[in-house]
Amino acid sequence: MKKKINYFYLGLILICFLLGAMVGDTADSDWLLKPPGLRPFSEPATVIPATHHYLNQKLELPQYRSASGTPRAGWSREFIKTRRFSSDQSAWIFYRQSDLKRTKVIKNAGMPDSLRIWPVGATLILEGYKGDASRAVDARLLEIEVMTKLAPAPIFATEAFFPVDWNYARYTPNGTWSLSMEKLIECHQCHGIAFRLTGDLIFTPFR
Q1: CB of 59 within 8 A of CB of 169?
Q2: Residue 43: CA atoms inside 13 Å, Cβ hemisphere, count?
Q3: Whole-model pTM?
Q4: CB-based burial, 148-157: b 16+ in 10 Å, e otherwise
Q5: Cis link prior to 173 (omega < 30° from 0)?
Q6: 199 contacts: CB under 8 Å, gap ≥ 6
Q7: What confidence tens digit (pLDDT) does each residue in 75-104 have?
Q8: Tens digits of per-residue pLDDT, 116-170?
Q9: Please, are residues 125 and 144 in contact by the beta-carbon 8 Å criterion?
C-alpha cells in the first residue's frame, strides 16, 4: 500500500512538472535577452558590455492608426523605400510624436555624428509591405513589428547608464501574435547593430 502511495505522489509530481513545462511553452514571448551594450551618462560615445538580462514581454498592439492607415492622434509615420535589403519591399514606421520629442540627441565626434537615445516607454511600430507602401493599391501588408523601450530593473535603474532594454513583438496583418523564439533572437541581434550605428537600437535616424 505504501509503495502504491509513493508511486501516486511520484505521478503527481511528474504531472505538475509536465504542466509547468507546457505553461512555460505557452508564454512564447517570455525569453531572456541581453543588451548589446551600455552607454554611460557621462560619456555616451563609450560603450561598455552589459552583464544583465531582461525579459521580453508579450504586450498588446497599440491603437496607432485608423483602418485606412492614417495615424491616430499623437502618432506620425515615416516611409522607408526598401526593407531588409529587398528591393520589392517597403515599410511605414509609426511613432509617437511625444516619444520623438523626448529623445536625447547627443553630438558625437566620430561616426555617427550624433547619437539619438530614446526614452523609456517609447514605442515604434513597423508595417512591412511587399511593394510600394506609399501607394496602397501597389502594396500588400506582410507583418507588423513593434519595439517598446522598457524601464530598467530597479537594481540597474540607479546606475549611471542610459536605459537600453527593448521589448519586441510581431503580429500578422490581422493583429494575431506571431513572434517565435527564432524570430525574437533574429530581431534582437539585428537591432544590436543599430546600437552602434545610431546610439540606440533603432535604425531610422529621424533627422
Answers
A1: yes
A2: 3
A3: 0.82
A4: bbbebeeebe
A5: no
A6: 39, 44, 106, 108, 112, 114, 115, 116, 117
A7: 999 998 876 666 789 999 999 999 999 999
A8: 999 999 999 999 999 999 887 889 999 999 999 999 877 665 678 999 999 999 9
A9: yes
